[in-house]
Amino acid sequence: MKFLDQVKVYVKSGAGGGGAVSFRREKYIEFGGPDGGDGGRGGDVWIEAVEGLNTLIDYRYQQHFRAGTGVHGMGRSRHGAAGADVVLKVPVGTEVLDEDKNLIADMSVAGQRLQLLQGGNGGWGNERFKGPVNQAPRHANPGQEGQEMALWLRLKLIADVGLVGLPNAGKSTFLAASSAAKPKIADYPFTTLAPNLGMVDLSVGERFVLADIPGLIEGASEGAGIGTRFLGHVERTAVLVHLVDATQEDVAGAWQTVRHELEAYGEGLEDKAEIVALNKIDALDAETIEARAAELEAVVGHKVRRVSGVAKIGVTEILRAAYALVREKKGEIAAEEASPEEWRP
Question: Above 80 in pLDDT, residue 339?
């Protein structure tokens, strides 16, 4: 399945049906009055977050959506049927923005549903206008026009832990070693061209979602390489696992490059809890590993973990440390939501 995380769509609600002008003409009814029915209301435009989707690829092939028009009213007091609604189904984590990219809604919960546009009201038939003064009205209201707008849909995947690092840092291998995900793995840069998700099962009741995003290079915040477009997919994470390739000479510079791009991107990524790991240690001797770990710790400011995704060395330990931070973060959020608001007289 192809991955698409941003798309522009055009939506329009349905116009209301027109009211009818009609009079009763039964043979044995002496005073046949107006009996024109109302038009049906136009269909609404809704958006709904659903489970089972992780891409906006469906909207590449259809960008225009129009709700049904209400049916016109008819004689014998018959009202027109309402137009059919349109429901845009999107993955959980999709942001809805207007044409100027101002946020309208964040569809972050499965089943969340939002009305984007309301259909036009149906017009009144002439039966509505009869009265003592005007007993035979010969006019009715037309249906109200629908509304239309252009929208941007931007997907930010829901994950608990995000993997970051330079290209070829071993992120895809680490994801494959941690979960049942099968990302593309090769010995050239930018193997990962789209985010990958994996479910990590530590034990019964201990599971979280791990996201691997394409590698960052120097100048990514200014559009170099794949740029920082996919960093939006780790905005919602509680923890970042920063992998540094132990086989390169300048491990400290590699860490600093990615940190600079995270800070340039902003959106709180630079403030997230970070686990730094020296990856691919299976390819080095013990002395070299310790020398490069010490070099990296000098700039990071805290202990650096040693790991190998290929040999699965230290993988479980990092996952458990990440899970502990995820639980801690979720506990903080739950406490904030449960605390009563401060009362002010």
Answer: no
How far is it, in rounded angstroms, from Cα 44 to Cα 13?
A: 5
Which residues, 6 or more positions from 80, have their beta carbon under 8 angstroms from its beta carbon? 17, 37, 38, 39, 40, 70, 71, 72, 73, 74, 122
Distance of CA 58 to the CA centre of its chain: 14
253 in Cβ contact with 175 (< 8 Å):
no
Contact present, 83 and 70 (Cβ < 8 Å): yes
pLDDT band at 151, cuts 50/70/90? Answer: very high
With beta carbons less than 8 A apart as the criterion, state whether 281 and 307 touch: yes
Q: What is the pLDDT of residue 144?
A: 95
Cα(9)–Cα(150) distance, integer angstroms: 6
**How many Å apart are CA 24 and CA 136, to the nearest integer?**
11
Question: pTM of the full predicted structure?
Answer: 0.74
Closest CA to 157 of 95, 69, 205: 95
Q: Residue 56 has which token pair?
A: 């906006």
Q: Which residues in 246-316 belong to E strands, given as ranges? A: 273-279, 305-306
Domains in the chain (CATH in brackets) are: 1-155 (2.70.210.12), 161-338 (3.40.50.300)
